[in-house]
DUF4249 domain-containing protein (Ancylomarina euxinus), 300 residues
Amino acid sequence: MKNYIIYFIILLLATYSCEDDIKLNLNPDSPVMVVNALAGNDSLVRVHVSLSKQLHNNNNNNNNNNVQTTLADATLSIYEEGKLLGKLKKTEDAWYEIQSRFQADLNYRVEVNHPKYKSISAETRIPSEVKISHCEMTKNETAYHFQLQFQDKSYSKDYYMILLYAVTNEVINGENYQQNSLLSYYSEDIIFKDNLLENTTNLDQNLLRGSLGFSDHNKSGEKFDIKFYAPIQVPPYEIKVFKVKLLHISRDYFAYERSKRMISNREDMPIYKKINLHSNINGGAGIFAGYTLNEWEITD
């Protein structure tokens, strides 16, 4: 009986700890273009283009086995509701930009062409803006405590993300500069623990620790009341203003953030299962997704 138990443990370890770190479902001998763009109503549309490389290189004499390399000579077009919005112009380091912002409740499509590689495309719909109805902050000796409220939309499946920024003043060479710093926060709210794209398991929950995304699963059309806290830094620094940002994100954005978080957390686990990095790119890899943002400022 003891031998059977040992055999079962070995089999379990082999099942969950082998295979690739990230499965892209690509032919390793046929590079494809990779697009990365997460844009919203608060900034210009910027798209990064790279080229996939062979994931596993069996030739020991060849050290050039990077997963991706930048691609700065592609042609990108953005369509809004089926009509050409414009061509993206190349900026620095393979970034492409257009002097436009995504608008709520509209559909967008990006097409990427290159003379050497297969053309790729992707589509996304920008969610409507969801406004924060109330947000407040209290403070004790160890942490800033926040309470955020907003009304979820009815009759739709919605996905969200909360970002917390601290605005501080820094003096550099006698000049005052305003600095916006993204803060880590923590929450025991069930909303962060009960929102999976598939059936929830203890392993999935552990892999999702630190994820900032959540959905209106079992709460569609209800009022959300979320509590979270950010530890006070040691030594503390003076914070003038907090910015609490509520992002109403697309389903692809939600799935991408969660899969990326799970892959990152898996590195700390002795056993794990294979995870696919979510992609919505037709003919290639990467992510093209959007959001709308609503912001609430709190003065300390």
Observations:
- Confidence is low (pLDDT under 50) at residues 1-24, 55-66, 196-200.
- Residues 2-17 form the longest helix (16 residues).
- The longest strand covers residues 285-299.
- Residues 189 and 234 are 25 Å apart (CA to CA).
